[in-house]
Structure to design on (136 residues):
């Protein structure tokens, strides 16, 4: 029987690896918001004014003359002045403002990503063969 240990042939055998990788990302973002505003403004301005004036002026002059010879003289002057005035002012101003605002906001962001990858890797057999023999 002969012994053969196989010797060193210079060959290097590597490994073979295959597989799959699965990764996923799920993200959910939700926003709900609302806003309501109400404004009421009202102004009133009122002014009254009243004035009255009354003037009365009377002046009289009367002369009468009689002499013994029978002459008679008579003079009358009479002045009468009346003035009446009435004034009334009224101012009314009104200003109003009313506003209302309502807003609603909803947002939904969803992100889903799935990353799948498959790989295989094999190591090449290297026999340390000189390039001149391998080409030949």
């Amino acid at each position: 029987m002969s012994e053969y240990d196989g010797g060193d042939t210079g060959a290097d055998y590597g490994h073979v690896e295959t597989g799959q990788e699965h990764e996923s990302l799920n993200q959910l973002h939700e926003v709900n918001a609302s806003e309501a505003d109400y404004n009421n403004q009202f102004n009133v301005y009122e002014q009254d004014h009243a004035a009255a004036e009354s003037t009365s002026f009377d002046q009289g002059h009367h002369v009468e003359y009689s002499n013994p010879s029978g002459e008679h003289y008579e003079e009358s002057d009479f002045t009468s002045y009346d003035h009446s005035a009435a004034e009334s002012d009224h101012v009314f101003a009104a200003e109003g403002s009313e506003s209302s605002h309502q807003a609603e906001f909803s947002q939904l962001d969803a992100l889903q990503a799935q990353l799948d990858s498959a790989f295989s890797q094999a190591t090449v057999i290297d026999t340390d063969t000189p390039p001149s023999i391998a080409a030949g």
Summary: The chain has a mean pLDDT of 81. The radius of gyration is 62 Å. The helical segments are 131-135.
